[in-house]
Specification:
single chain, about 300 residues, alpha/beta, UDP-N-acetylmuramoyl-L-alanine:D-glutamate ligase, nine-stranded mixed β-sheet, five-stranded mixed β-sheet, binds adenosine monophosphate
Length: about 300
């Protein structure tokens, strides 16, 4: 079975959408990634940090999904990373109300020995130096290193971010962040600039407008499934990334063609994540539901025009 190493925040989130508000609930980039990747036949581990205010039941939830949590450090007397955000009415944009790094501020990640030869490494959203330290601890170059980031790190750790981006294979990023990173409005130009920074592939996530995969002169597009109800988009990007790397770890094939399938799997899982607050929907997701929606994806995108 392929091995997947995930690094990213394990967090408390407080979310406000036009439909309601939550107090501190389970969140974090690594949490969404790992729960999404758990849909695939892959052995995964999370490297992260929490404080001792983090409920044991959340850690147990990850363990129950066969996610190795030996790389999650629990800091005695420490406070867990906290993020809060408020969505605008269109749900495609949000304001960050607060980001409290807490125990993340001086975290030294330690990759469990058993995962130093992971096939795929998913560097989820957190400080670029932590992402780089994980790459440096690998015993051999993984088949694929995927990195996700966000505006917070561009604003606060620009040079460190560029350094780690130079070492990876795939960058996943949302449209606004791609524009901020490259100062290009056109996403095609932005992707070309990102590829010059190091990665061979770029995935630009466009929320309810799907995701674009760029590689050399090729572009592939996966729509987002048009949903009747979108409740809370938090974690959609991370769930996308989890589906993407989970599928690639299961299939152990990192060709462009297979990355296209991975983008579809990512979009498919993200379509569930937005249906309930936080991780609720992705936690309870069944394989039969995932397969049913994949069929809908196929119907949505297949056409039969004959070309000369
Ligand atoms: P997404 O909606 O996919 O962009 O991810 C939202 C998740 O990212 C939330 O669960 C947050 O806990 C986490 N998050 C928010 N800001 C940051 C940050 N600056 N670094 C790492 N994780 C973050």
């Amino acid at each position: 079975m392929g091995k997947l190493l995930i690094v990213g925040t394990v967090a408390f989130d407080a979310i406000e959408t036009p439909f309601g508000k939550t107090d501190k609930i389970l969140g974090g980039a690594a949490t969404f990634i790992a729960l999404a990747a758990a849909q695939f036949d892959a052995k995964s581990a999370v490297v992260s940090v929490v404080g001792d205010d983090f409920p044991q039941k959340y850690l147990d939830l990850l363990t129950a999904k066969n996610i190795d949590i030996s790389g999650i450090e629990v800091v005695k007397g420490g406070k867990t990373f906290f993020w809060s955000g408020k969505y605008h009415n269109d749900l495609n944009s949000r304001d960050t109300l607060s980001t409290e790094l807490n125990v993340l501020a001086d975290f030294n990640p330690i990759v469990p020995d058993e995962f130093k030869d992971a096939d795929v490494v998913m560097l989820g959203n957190l400080h670029p130096n932590i992402q780089r330290s994980v790459i440096e601890q690998m015993e051999r170059r993984p088949k694929l290193i995927v990195l996700d980031t966000m505006n917070y790190w561009m604003n606060n750790s620009w040079d460190e971010l560029l350094e780690v981006i130079a070492q990876i294979d795939v960058l996943t990023i949302n449209d606004e962040e791609a524009r901020q990173l490259t100062k290009e409005y056109s996403l095609v130009r932005a992707a070309a600039k990102i590829i010059k920074m190091g990665p061979k592939y770029v995935v630009i996530k466009k929320g309810e407008h799907g995701a674009l995969l760029f590689h050399e002169e090729h572009i592939f597009f996966a729509p987002a499934l048009p949903l009747e109800e979108v409740f809370d988009p938090t974690g959609a990007g991370d769930t996308f990334a989890g589906g993407f790397v989970g599928y690639l770890t299961e299939t152990k094939n990192v060709s462009f063609n297979n990355l296209r399938n991975a983008v579809i799997h990512g979009s498919n899982l993200a379509s569930f994540a937005v249906e309930k607050f936080g991780t609720a929907r992705i936690e309870s997701l069944k394989k039969s539901e995932v397969d049913k929606r994949l069929r809908q994806f196929r119907e949505l995108t297949q056409f039969d025009i004959e070309l000369q």
